[in-house]
Amino acid sequence: MSDPIGRPVRIASLCFRDGAKSRAEIGEVINLEGARGCDLIVLPESWTGHTPEALDGPTVTALSALARKHRTYLVCPIDRIEGDRRLNSAILIDRDGRVVCVYDKVYPYWSEFDYPTPTSPGCEAPVYSADFGRIGMAICFDVNFPEVWERLAEQGAELVIWPSAYSTGASLQAHAINHHYYIVTATATRHFLAYDITGELLLSERGEDLHVSRLTLDLDRGIYHQNFNIEKRDRLLRDHCDDVFQEKWLDDEQWFVLRASRPGCSARALAREYGLEELRDYLRRSRVEIDCMRGTTLFRTLDG
């Protein structure tokens, strides 16, 4: 993938064994990555171990200060106490050090119910509008349950962060293919994965100890079905040949990807201007309209 132009987000993912590094050690790494210039730093599931703490506890407080210092977003998973409930949470901290989004693991793993205070399942998958784009989160065992990932897509997620205790390998690829957002991991197995909006594996890296993976994604890239879009695409590319180009043509899937050619130009905005419908929107609209003809919705969603 070439250097992003349209709407870049620079990501650093830290992969290491849960509980293997102290807050001070991780703080030093975050300081280094923040000094390099970063939009988003991601940590693995339960990276501090399994002793729960409050949202205003020492971990989130320390990382909030680092996010504010380096003007970066941070995804900080913690085992969390809220009142009398225990939750497995991923906390999104913004560039000002504020907690702006909390995702509570919708599908905790079975061992999480064996704690003295069992982990409570979450019931929503929020998406947050960061300054670089719309970001959602899922955690570990959630990978096995499509409704979490569909809910993120329904809310317009462009990037999904997946902190986890294990790697999962290609299972994430299915969600990227089905929902056309980027997926980036941070795992306690020291294995990093990133998937493209087409489902292509962008990066797979493994480390021996604490491993930092870095990549920059362009959230302005748009993916479209050939259905009903070809004539509109041709007019767009003819009128804006210096602004937008067709980056990918996936003939078997009948998809194509448009991308900006120069900074300051948005391929997705121009595509909307010319009436192109993004693939995810096309499929969602098709489902809704066909369900209306059927007179019923076949499958329940997460909030259904």
Structure description:
The protein is of the alpha/beta class. The chain is 26% helix and 30% strand. It has seven helices and 15 strands. It has helices spanning 23-36, 58-70, 146-154, 171-179, 230-239, 267-273, 279-294, and strands at residues 8-15, 40-42, 73-82, 85-93, 99-104, 127-129, 134-137, 159-164, 182-187, 191-195, 201-206, 211-218, 222-225, 244-250, 255-260. The chain has a six-stranded mixed beta sheet with strand order 5-4-3-2-1-12. The protein has a six-stranded mixed beta sheet with strand order 6-7-8-9-10-11, covered by helices on one side. It has a three-stranded antiparallel beta sheet with strand order 13-15-14. Strand 10 (191-195) and strand 11 form a beta hairpin. Helix 1 runs parallel beside helix 2. The longest helix has 16 residues, at 279-294. It is globular and about 60 Å long.
Compile the SSE list and pairings.
Blueprint: E1 8-15, H1 23-36, E2 40-42, H2 58-70, E3 73-82, E4 85-93, E5 99-104, E6 127-129, E7 134-137, H3 146-154, E8 159-164, H4 171-179, E9 182-187, E10 191-195, E11 201-206, E12 211-218, E13 222-225, H5 230-239, E14 244-250, E15 255-260, H6 267-273, H7 279-294
Parallel strand pairs: 1-2, 2-3, 7-8, 8-9
Antiparallel strand pairs: 1-12, 3-4, 4-5, 6-7, 9-10, 10-11, 13-15, 14-15
